[in-house]
Amino acid sequence: MRRFLLQSFLYSLIFLLFVSCKTYQLTDVKPISNSEKTVENLYFSSNEDYVYKCQMDIYKNHVSGILIIKKINAEFHRVVLTSDFGNKLIDFEVSENDFKLNYVLPDLDKKIVINFLKSDFQELLRQKYPVSESFENENSKIYLSKIDKKSYYLFFNKENNLLKQIIYTKNNKEKIDFSFDAKKHIFADSLNLQHKDFKINIKLFQITETE
Description:
Blueprint lengths: L1 H14 L14 E3 L5 E3 L9 E9 L2 E11 L5 E6 L5 E7 L4 E6 L6 H14 L3 E3 L2 E4 L3 E8 L2 E8 L5 E8 L2 E12 L2 E9 L4 E9 L3
Antiparallel strand pairs: 1-9, 2-8, 3-4, 3-15, 4-5, 5-6, 6-7, 9-10, 10-11, 11-12, 12-13, 13-14, 14-15
């Protein structure tokens, strides 16, 4: 069954067709002065283990397991995905610019799968964002960060100043929507990662919490 699910996951990535991405544009916001030069995603900044129940949905295929994320130095995080029974599926180290694969289950050892995981986790674990413009609406302060041809819209809750959403765009097209639920700046209780050009959704739910 596990082999079937993993193969279905791979085939979905290979054969699914791209859906058109709409140009992303903020609505119902007003510009504000740039009070911040840099903003940060601190949810994976602790040196403690971040342990989550992981659910991946790719079209009608579903894969679940345990995901462990650990910051191992100033630049790198180690990411390990196991099955629900504790069998290691993939183990890698990732930074904004580098990627090292330590282990991958043969069924997952495909270039398209590795590139997909590399790209998603490089974006998820990016910590610092230079601020280009600032906005606000009724509920959020919104910071636009531009890095090369990529743009990031970071939404911070006005009441508690916690990061609740990152919209990642490239060439003005929305690519990924990261949504967070959190009580602390350094730990997201849950995460929803929704691709806009693939029908791929990753959900993380806390198992253990950092102090």
